[in-house]
Amino acid sequence: MQTRWMILAGAVIVAAFLAGRAVPQDIDPKEMDMAEAMKAWQEAATPGKHHAWLERFVGTWDVEMKMWMEPGAAPMSSKGTTETKWLMRGRWIISTTKLAVPMLGKDLESVRILGYDNFRRKFVEVMVDNMNTHMVTSSGNRSKDLTSLVTYGPMNDPMTHEIGKTVKYATRLVDDDTYKVEVYDLVIGEGDESKVLEFALKRRK
Known about the structure:
Shape: globular
Distance between the termini: 52 Å
Largest sheet: 10 strands, antiparallel, barrel
Strand order of the largest sheet: 1-2-3-4-5-6-7-8-9-10
């Protein structure tokens, strides 16, 4: 096990060193396999257009959250702020949201990390908050017109004793200064009737 970790660590160091460097053209055929491997690693490690798209979310946002406790019922709402910045510039953004939620008895604080995995060719995200002890993850892609990002992932629900049920997360762009993040519980149904959360964000200027 220790040897395996040493090999992996060495590969990471080599890949980091080679990132951004071109693979030489005069490679001995005997070394081609290693060269191709390093090229593939370089491509997987180099930020591109999908990472550049994340820049649009950087900034301070006023946010209004709507929560549906049951289908068809009027939503409960609360307001707060979201601060988004580069966690690792050009690769990962981190959004910290703080909301006053009187019906829950305390303020909600959540953290969302979002990036693009070149190897999987998918956006990936992870979310944690001060109301739970589990971590939520999801992955997915943008729409062809680049106006929305839809990801899917498993979530545990202690209230219904469901483990790993599929949840849909939709980030929808309205304009340069407005977007929404919607959460759908696909166990409930399809379409808007399965929407349980909506965050409407407006850039603060």
